[in-house]
Amino acid sequence: MRLNSKAIALIQNILPQSLLLLLLVLPVLLSSCSGAPPQIAQLFWQLNIVRDIKDSTQHEELSLYVHAQDPDGTGDLEEIELVHPEAELRWNFTAENWHEVVRNDEMWLGGNGIKSGFTEEVPRGEYRVKVLDRAGETAVTSFFISKDIQGLQKGNIKESRFPRLQVMPDSIKLYFSAPEVLLSLYDGDEQFLRSQAFTSSAESDGDGGQVPTISDWRSKWPGAEMMWIQEYDSARGFGLVSGPYLLPQSE
User: Fold this and answer.
1) For the packed helices 17-32 and 5-14, what is the interaxial angle rounded to 10 degrees?
2) Is 0.85 surpassed by the pTM of this model?
3) pLDDT in tens, the chain (251 residues)
4) Residue 67's pLDDT is what?
5) In the chain, what are the domains?
6) What is the DSSP-derived secondary structure letter of residue 105?
7) Beta strands 77-84; 39-52: pairing state
8) How far apart are CA 174 and CA 243, in angstroms?
9) Which residues are CB-contacts of 92 (< 8 A; sequence separation ≥ 6)?
């Protein structure tokens, strides 16, 4: 709707200024939001066994990432809600705490470190995932963690089975047996900075394992002070995570 100057002048004499402003701005507001709900294009979840190298303990955590699409752009997404109805557990991710990971030019939102808080094991059964946008529109999906994925239910995993890092002042060596590992980097306040995937290289150590080496890591990851390494054990159906590895800071 377009109003010429004469029409606006006539309306100004009839309507309060606040109502006139609303009439002029409303068409713009309506055109800027499609009102269409978001869509969950892809969902990634993974049960992880986490080895804390500080005290040599192990516990289970869940990783969850959503590749969501919204007609009004990813900036219109407001919240990711994860619920385990049977255990009455709920976790929420917003722009303040979710991780943004780009893989193959696709934006994934979510995070790691999801746990029950009541037990060392992640509850098995059905989980529901809801994505909400700023207009209150939602998209819902679900996934199921089978009791057959026993994880810690059979006891601790051997320490030698976990991926590990050897941190040196100018380089970092990665030891792992899976085709790929994921490094998650954090700053001194334990705020997430970024994740980066690595595959095995041609260089090998004396035991036949692959030893990719990251050189000059300070220039690649400015501000990074802590790191976790994660791989997926396809034979057991869960991930293996080690950390936190502290990165030495230059004087």
Assistant:
1) 130
2) no
3) 444 555 444 434 544 554 434 344 444 444 445 568 888 999 999 999 999 999 989 999 999 999 998 777 777 889 999 999 999 999 999 989 898 888 888 889 999 889 988 888 999 999 999 999 888 889 999 999 998 888 887 778 889 999 999 999 889 999 998 888 889 999 999 888 988 888 876 344 434 455 788 988 888 899 999 999 999 877 778 899 999 999 987 76
4) 93
5) 1-32 (no CATH), 39-152 (2.60.40), 159-246 (2.60.40)
6) T
7) unpaired
8) 12
9) 79, 80, 81, 82
What are residue 173's DSSP bridge partners? 166, 213
Strand partners, 175: 164
Nearest CA to 232 out of 48, 96, 65 is that of: 48
Q: How many CB atoms lie within 10 A of CB 232?
A: 18
- 8-state DSSP, 152: G
pLDDT in tens, 156-166: 888 999 999 99
In order of 57, 67, 101, 108, 194, the CA distances from 104 in angstroms are 35, 12, 10, 10, 15
Could you give the CA distance from residue 211 to residue 204 in angstroms, rounded to a whole number?
Answer: 5
Which 3 state secondary structure label does DSSP give 178?
Answer: coil
Buried b (16+ CB within 10 A) or exposed e, 75-98: ebbbbbbbbbeeeebebebeeeeb
Residue the block writes with tokens 């047996």: 177
pLDDT value, residue 89: 94
**How many whole angstroms separate alpha carbon 219 and alpha carbon 128?**
40
What DSSP assignment string belongs to 231-246? EEETTTTEEEEEEEEE
Hey, what are 135's tokens? 């207009």
HSE (side-chain half, CA atoms, 13 Å) at 225: 8
User: How many whole angstroms separate alpha carbon 228 and alpha carbon 51?
Assistant: 10
